[in-house]
Amino acid sequence: MNFLYQVILVSLTALILLTIQAQPLQAAGLTQSEDFLARGTTKVLAGDYGGAISDLDQAIQNHPNDAKAHMNHGLARAILGDKKGAIGDFNRALQISPKFAEAYYNRGFVRSELQDYEAAISDFDQVLRLNPQDADACHCRGIIRHQLGDHQGASVDLGAAINLYFTQGKIEAYQGLVNQTKKLRSQLFPVS
């Protein structure tokens, strides 16, 4: 399996768990649209992606300007393999909420899976404009830059991600990236 693909797959799994926040299904005062959004989000977390899409379709139908519903819909579609549909959902979320960093991140991630690396880098650039402390965006952009042969840019991004993970107390991510960086360096500079 391609090293970049492994990194992206692990990052996508972690991102889904971090960006989708489950809400109580029967919380007092939820509108029908909010209930569908909460149920769809919960189903994504439970691995019921088809069910999630169905509920999120309803949430979007009831409230078409809910950027979070479009983003979560895109995440479910991406996991089910509908990458182009997912990008459409992320595009719609960004039309509604142009400063929605998570939607840029997710779109960049899916674009990288489609090997549209320049567009993915552009999305990660936007995430970092909106949130300069986003270690995951630095990490992903660095991996893509490495894949494209921009080893200097990759080194800067991966170094920044390592520092951010450390200062943010994300020790597992920090150690994982330190190990990945060692592997990348050994690929670039093999010891004879």
Automatic annotation (TrEMBL):
**What is the protein's given name?**
Uncharacterized protein
* SUPFAM superfamilies linked: TPR-like
Q: Which SMART domains does this chain map to?
A: TPR (SM00028)
Entry-linked InterPro entries: TPR-like_helical_dom_sf, TPR_rpt, Ycf3
| Coiled coil feature spans | none
Please provide the Gene Ontology terms (biological process) for this protein: receptor-mediated virion attachment to host cell
Q: Which PROSITE patterns match?
A: TPR, TPR_REGION
Can you say where the TPR repeats lie in this chain?
67-100, 101-134
A cellular component term from Gene Ontology for this protein is:
cell outer membrane
